[in-house]
Amino acid sequence: MEEERNQWCFACGPNNPIGLRLTFAEEGDKYVARFTAGPEHQSYDGIVHGGIISTLLDEIMGRYPYVKGEDTVTARLEIRYRRPTPIGRELTITGWVVNRRGRLYEMAGTVALPDGKVTAEGKAMLMVTGK
């Protein structure tokens, strides 16, 4: 039953035909996903839409507590776009816990190009909803 949960998630659900189909890996105390945006993800020619960037960051920050067995929802999300993110380049999306207070997780995340240049940064407050 557990493996049937969230199969239609826009960001990570394998059953969603228009989703991003992200997969994740733990790397030390961080959570990492890789994604290459195509033309269907663009805003201006050659640039990833800001809403997709926001989705990538929201997902990487929200996913970390989920894999630790806690259901959370995003209570606050802040994105700082540092430079345009080009389509067709593999992006590394990284998220980590900054602090945990009771039912709240304070998270941070980045979207980076293969050369390590950060194109966007995120901060989020997540609230544990169950479990």
Chain-wise SSE layout:
Layout: E1 24-27, E2 30-36, H1 50-67, E3 72-81, E4 90-101, E5 104-112, E6 118-128
Antiparallel strand pairs: 1-2, 2-4, 3-6, 4-5, 5-6
* CATH fold node name: Thiol Ester Dehydrase, Chain A
Would you identify the CATH H-level superfamily? Hotdog Thioesterase
Total DSSP helices: 1
Instruction: Using the coordinates above, name the CATH class.
Output: Alpha Beta
Average per-residue pLDDT, rounded, comes to 92
Euclidean distance between termini CA atoms: 16 Å
Strand composition percent? 35-45%
What is the count of distinct domains?
1
Q: Give the H and E element order.
A: EEHEEEE
Give me the Rg, rounded. Answer: 14 Å
Helix content: 10-25%
Explain the overall architecture.
The structure is a single chain. The model has no long low-confidence stretch (mean pLDDT 92). A 6-stranded antiparallel beta sheet has the order 1-2-4-5-6-3, covered by helices on one side. A hairpin with a 2-residue loop joins strand 1 and strand 2. The two termini are 16 Å apart. The chain is mostly beta strands. 14% of the residues lie in helices and 40% in strands. The chain has one domain (2-128): Hotdog Thioesterase (Thiol Ester Dehydrase, Chain A, Roll).
Descriptive tags:
131 residues, mainly beta, Thiol Ester Dehydrase, Chain A, 6-stranded antiparallel sheet, 1 helix, 40% strand, globular
Quick synopsis:
With 131 residues, this protein is mainly β.
